[in-house]
Amino acid sequence: MDKLKIGIIGCGGIANQKHFPALKNNAELNEMTAFCDVIVERAEKAAEEFGAEGAKVYTDYRELLADPDVEVVHICTPNVSHSEIAIAAFAAKKHVYCEKPMSHNTEEAEKMTEAWKQSGMQFTIGYQNRFRPEVQNLHAACEKGELGDIYYGKAHAVRRRAVPTWGVFMDKQQQGGGPLIDIGTHALDITLWCMNNYEVDSVSGSVFCKLGGLPQAAEGNLFGPWDPETYEVEDSAMGYIKMKNGAAIHLEASWALNMLNSREASTTLCGTEAGAEIHSGMSYQKNELIYNRGRNGQLMEETISPTGSVAYFGGGGGEEGTIDCRQWLEAVQNGTQPLVKPEEALEVTRVLDAIYKSAAENKEIKF
Ligand SMILES: NC(=O)c1ccc[n+]([C@@H]2O[C@H](COP(=O)([O-])OP(=O)(O)OC[C@H]3O[C@@H](n4cnc5c(N)ncnc54)[C@H](O)[C@@H]3O)[C@@H](O)[C@H]2O)c1
């Protein structure tokens, strides 16, 4: 089969950390033929390092979308531009892998979903954490019913001091919010996916802007001190989500919080047969999955510490970004369903949006 021709829009942090290496690691399935960034040097550098022969460079995403050679577009720009670019990409009959979150608000995410449905093209969102071995293991256990009826979950996205100081992460207009939309989105995605429950009944939330504006709080930040004058988004947010079947989820997200336990892209699930916890983030040296249950009259803990490789979709082991990328490219080539469905990502965005709304209006949001 011919290699898919990929165009990447936004050649900053996540493009360099995830997309370029992952696409390169799947070179038998694709070639990177077009690069776009409003900062031309970034697109030029990426084209030189990762581009196929004759790869094109653009500063306007519309020109990249008009390029008939490009079949698949990866959107790696700040949150606020996801919907505009994705909708234009579907109109140009391109397949779209869009970075998380799907969009900065529900209205735009719904427009993207509608445009995708009209287009007949493939669409997925960058929730690569689903491809981590411990998340795969937990999902498989949940699917088999090993936890029983899962009636309580916790979605953990807590950093003690790790405010992202590059790009536009502290800019409310560009990103739509702070840690909730940035990392809360991953934790909620894996929690809902493992629970296989997208039927939300109501959402309550609290959003805090306590440390972002304090110069003394910026000291000790993992990514260097931030500028309190330009810090516009929340620094922590908590949500309580009630599902239609009575299950409940507690979501906690922070970039800066005076709490010892830094736990990110993690979930805790409690079922009638067993419970399970994923430990990952800065308080943990390695990612772990721990099941807990009663057996033979005693409480048992079973720890799975995967070595970092997982066989998936018939492929060999590999890092999650590479596996995610492979299943996406195969889905496009074969016309099959990518693992992360747009409807699931839309529901995550709806919940995050409702937490912000609940906090702003000081009331529970009914779905
Ligand atoms: N999947 C993950 O774990 C993960 C991790 C980090 C970031 N992200 C997501 O990736 C997106 C980008 O984050 P980042 O860290 O790469 O930010 P970044 O600021 O490092 O990179 C964004 C790039 O997009 C360019 N850009 C901005 N607007 C553009 C436009 N209209 N057209 C073309 N280029 C444009 C910028 O010049 C910049 O180079 C965000 O949505 C973020 O949530 C996902």
Named once each, the bound ligands are: nicotinamide-adenine-dinucleotide
Radius of gyration: 20 Å
Taken in chain order, the helices and strands follow as EHEHEHEHEHEHEHHEEEEEEEHHE
Q: Could you name the ranges where pLDDT drops below 50 across 5 or more consecutive residues?
A: 308-316
Number of helices: 10
General description of the model:
The chain has 367 residues and is an alpha/beta fold. The chain is 33% helix and 25% strand. The strands form 2 sheets. A 9-stranded mixed sheet has the order 14-13-12-11-7-10-9-8-15, covered by helices on one side. Helix 1 (13-25) packs across helix 9, helix 5 (106-119) packs antiparallel against helix 10 (342-361) and helix 6 packs across helix 8 (179-195). The longest helix is centred in the C-terminal third of the chain and has 20 residues, at 342-361. The radius of gyration is 20 Å and the shape is globular. The relative contact order is 0.15.
Search tags:
367 residues; alpha/beta; nine-stranded mixed β-sheet; six-stranded parallel β-sheet; 10 helices; 15 strands; globular; binds nicotinamide-adenine-dinucleotide
Summary of the model, kept short:
By secondary structure, the chain is an alpha/beta fold. Helices cover 33% and strands 25% of the residues. It has ten helices and 15 strands.
